[in-house]
Amino acid sequence: MPLMQKGLRRLPGLVAIAQKWFAEQAIPHRILIGVVVSLTLTMSLYAVFAGNACAVKVNGEVIAIAADESTAKKALAELVDYKTGEAGSMVNYTEEISYKSIWVRNKTEGILDVEELKTQISSALTFKMQAAAILVNGEQKILLKNRQEAETLLGWLESVYHVEPADRVAFRENVEIVDILADIGGTMSFDVAKKMALLGSNNVVQYTVKDGDNLWDISRAFNIDQDQLISANPGLNPENLRAGQMLYLNQEAPLITVIATREVTVDEKIPYSVNVKYDDGLLLGEKFIISQGVPGERTVTYRITRENGLETDREVRSQVVKSDPKTEEVVKGAITMVASRGGSLRLSWPCGGGVVSSFGMRWGRMHEGIDLDADYGSSVVAVAGGTVVDAGWDGGYGMKVDISHGGGLVTRYAHLSEINAAVGDSVNRGETIGLVGSTGNSTGPHLHFETVVGGEPCDPLDFLP
Ligand SMILES: [Zn+2]
Known about the structure:
Blueprint: H1 2-23, H2 27-49, E1 53-58, E2 61-66, H3 69-87, E3 91-93, E4 97-102, H4 114-124, E5 127-136, E6 139-144, H5 147-160, E7 168-171, E8 175-183, H6 190-199, E9 205-208, H7 215-222, H8 226-232, E10 246-249, E11 258-270, E12 274-279, E13 287-291, E14 296-307, E15 310-323, E16 328-333, E17 355-357, E18 360-362, E19 365-367, E20 370-372, E21 379-381, E22 386-393, E23 399-404, E24 409-416, E25 418-419, E26 426-427, E27 432-435, E28 447-453, E29 456-458
Parallel strand pairs: 12-16
Antiparallel strand pairs: 1-2, 1-4, 3-5, 5-6, 5-8, 7-11, 9-10, 11-14, 13-16, 14-15, 17-20, 18-19, 20-28, 21-27, 22-23, 22-26, 23-24, 24-28, 25-27, 28-29
Helix pairs in contact: 3-4
The structure holds zinc ion.
């Protein structure tokens, strides 16, 4: 206490002056002066060593005066309790708080009660709360009250896309939970966090399905990719939209991609190939089977990968061939048609990839086309020039394009992931009309291709080279 030391050092000189002056005073005055001096001294000592109030300091600055230190501490404790309750998580403050005993002349002025102290302390301190942040590729995206909520959210996300018990589930992104001190009120509710994780944003339009709506129309109307619609609405059955059903429409991608892989072993037929000889003596569509093809059989194990519920890959892991297919030997007429554009034409292949399922009876049902094994997203082209007569979602076909080539021949391209043609378009042979996909009733990416002559489905292999 430098001030007090300074005072004490000057004391002898002051005492001498006082003694001299004191000796010059009359006796009654001396008594009065003695009383006054001793009273003053007592009060000063009391002020220096005891004080009658308590200054509350935040980072060294007085922010309030309390009656005493315990009242100030009580106000602070109550404030922390209140903030903790309000935040739903432990709160703490970042400043340094201290107390100092002081003397005030008038105890009725300037001394704050507990409620007033709380208000004053609250405005001087910065409270932060314990919270858990979910980082996606190192960026903080979701802020929850605690680690347990964050873990529950990630668990929910893993299960939301129709995951089966045998699935192995992983996130594509690097997802981690970290404990942080956050601003009070800065965390999000669990429901908001769910939307953020699933839809990439909390600001999402909802749409109520109306009678007669289909996914294609909705997708077109709101300019949203159908895959995006399906991924944003886990459990959605595109073929079975119900009026009144709520759909999330968002153009943002989910924050986190759930990758589920499973291995599936199935018994399958191996399609037979067809060896065709052309005979100019036969007419369009006429053919003679010299020896009937027989499909082979195999047991195949696929590894299927789904990203947010959409199948993105189907890889053959192993297969056991039980019987080889037997090639069909056929003689056909050279394909000549009176097309609207005139001239004769032969169809070309709509995409790369071999025939994995042939025309005819399959699993007790008529398979009205052929399935071509092609990569997801690869181009599907018109097999001949013609006019697009249908383009859009069509039940089990998923996204489908029909092209009329005249002479009663219509070609159909189904399960597309994208359509690049519109009804009325004139297309040339080889022009891309869509991309291979797995929409509609499809177990994996492939092109289902049909040739319909006079309304009757015919074996496309009769028209292909
Ligand atoms: Zn098919």
